[in-house]
């Protein structure tokens, strides 16, 4: 009679119940990708949206390798991993579940006062609260609280206690990020130079320039800081010496940059560097 490693026995039982599973090695980490998949050389599944093994025999791509197929779980490559595994993980989202991972006593107290009761599982430092329903996973939604559902894995720590309830809106709302707080730009505008004459034909010229600058920053999908700096530089090179710019204009530009994730300090640095470059 063949004796299966304990993690594999647990994995097969979970898989039989429709829960996709994957082995974890020491340190509660998934096994590394095989050579074909290392560094996403295989194509990488960088936009992985569903559970399922890679097209290789190894236990690759962490949560995306989770499976309910006993033939895969007991294949030679997976058996080798199970022999070294210390525990079992599962992909909650693929099982239609969401795990609210409470990492300390304070987080548990918060959950008991805030969230609807559901099935709970003790962890080393806190608890897992498991709800029926899937959502996008998010880390650090509040101190000591992670949400593990789609595109994530959670350790299997036992069936837990209590009746599992439907995923409530209060948990879904935790993943909604508040828009960045826009603070008044703590900067100065260049002083009017020369004879103070404005070379621009109409105020609309400046208004169009500021509106175009806002749009350029808002449209940036990468290198936001560099885009903000170049935009500030362009605005200052055109309007920085005649005294047209006001604090209101600068606040509009800073607001656009902060909405893309830039901090006030980064905005101020970019503005200062642009002024220095132009000798203002």
How does this model look, in words?
By secondary structure, this protein is an alpha+beta fold. The chain is built from nine helices and nine strands. It has helices spanning 6-16, 70-73, 76-84, 105-114, 169-174, 203-218, 224-239, 247-259, 264-278, and strands at 21-25, 29-30, 87-90, 97-102, 119-122, 127-132, 138-142, 145-148, 154-155. Strands 5-6-4-8-7 form a five-stranded antiparallel sheet. Strands 2-1-3-9 form a four-stranded antiparallel sheet. It is elongated. The model is unreliable at 179-185 and 192-196 (pLDDT under 50).
Q: How does the overall form come out from the CA principal axes?
A: elongated
List low-confidence stretches: 179-185, 192-196
Distance between the termini: 83 Å
Measured on Cα atoms, how large is the radius of gyration?
Answer: 27 Å
Question: Helix-strand pattern, N to C?
Answer: HEEHHEEHEEEEEHHHHH
Strand segment tally: 9
How does the SSE layout of this entry go?
Layout: H1 6-16, E1 21-25, E2 29-30, H2 70-73, H3 76-84, E3 87-90, E4 97-102, H4 105-114, E5 119-122, E6 127-132, E7 138-142, E8 145-148, E9 154-155, H5 169-174, H6 203-218, H7 224-239, H8 247-259, H9 264-278
Antiparallel strand pairs: 1-2, 1-3, 3-9, 4-6, 4-8, 5-6, 7-8
Helix pairs in contact: 6-7, 6-8, 7-9
